[in-house]
Design brief:
Number of helices: 2
Largest sheet: none
Helix content: 40-55%
Strand content: under 5%
Radius of gyration: 14 Å
Distance between the termini: 44 Å
Length: 63
Amino acid sequence: MEIGVKQIECSINGLGARKGNTNLSDIALKISNYQNYFINLELNSVATVSQSVTRILNYSQLK
């Protein structure tokens, strides 16, 4: 991060473009707790997004 990272590749609920990407919630918490780095992300909204993805996926499996 000291060299100017501008973006990260991650997933929501384990879903992402590539296998092995870390969950957004894990990355966000670790970065924000590491030497008080500022991240432009509302941590509370990550849980809401995760719940929405779960709800959508469960709905699609019922069809």
